[in-house]
Amino acid sequence: MRHRLLGELSLDKVLVSPSILASDFSRLGEDVKRVEDAGCDMLHLDIMDGHFVPNLTFGPPLVASIRKNSALLFDTHLMLTNPLDYVKPFAEAGADSITFHVESENDPLEVIEAIRAQGCSVGISVKPGTSAKALEQYIGLVDMVLVMTVEPGFGGQSFMADMIPKVAEVFAMFREKNPEGFIEVDGGIDARTAPEIIRAGAGVLVAGTAVFRAKEGAAEAIRTLHSYSGLLPAR
Ligand code: DX5
Ligand code: ZN
What we know:
By secondary structure, the chain is an alpha/beta fold. The protein has a single domain (11-229), classed as Aldolase class I (TIM Barrel), CATH 3.20.20.70. The protein has helices spanning 28-37, 60-67, 87-93, 108-117, 164-177, 194-199, 209-212, 218-226, and strands at residues 15-18, 42-48, 73-79, 97-101, 121-126, 144-148, 182-186, 204-207. Strands 1-8-7-6-5-4-3-2 form an 8-stranded parallel beta sheet. The longest helix has 14 residues, at 164-177. It is globular, with a radius of gyration of 16 Å. Bound molecules: D-xylitol-5-phosphate (DX5) and zinc ion. D-xylitol-5-phosphate (DX5) binds at residues 19, 21-22, 44, 46, 77, 150, 152-157, 186-189, 206-210. Zinc ion (ZN) binds next to strand 2.
């Protein structure tokens, strides 16, 4: 399978990745189409194993079924104890970018290699309690760092503003060692919480509740987030 890659997207614009965790699963196909038509840049898929995080979501068959009707880049967030076992099944189901947690039980270098072997973009993520230092040795090997701005496990939680300095640290690391790297933030991102973290260098915004359940409609919510592109720091 040919995969879309993060490198196709712009580093100089705010990109919005709606998390389907906040969609209506009984009409998932329509909901994905709705955010795609509303102008989102990718689609965020939260995969939870009930072990790495205290919640369960969905597996490769669901990803394969939405793949049939969507051309979006599938931004797949593996909250799994053993990501290595699942890289291939998710890639074959249609995941394009695959992000795993540095806190998982596998050797990050092996996971990075396994994701590359599938022809996918590579992301590495840190939970709120893990410092940016834990990423230092991998920064030149990945396409994206995902800084969690809530404890992973559930949608609809409050944004942790104390993660903003961590984003700034990752931005400095990328600038020095890998200027093409994307920084994604995930958890409690909306029109009110986004500006400060974008100023720190986060260009990819996961937004579940703020897009799928936007009172003003998904298109308007995405337009507002896109309008913050000018806040991104120069690389
Ligand atoms: C949390 C997930 C998030 C979550 C975001 O573990 O990784 O992607 O769905 O949801 P909101 O945007 O509602 O905080
Ligand atoms: Zn996520």
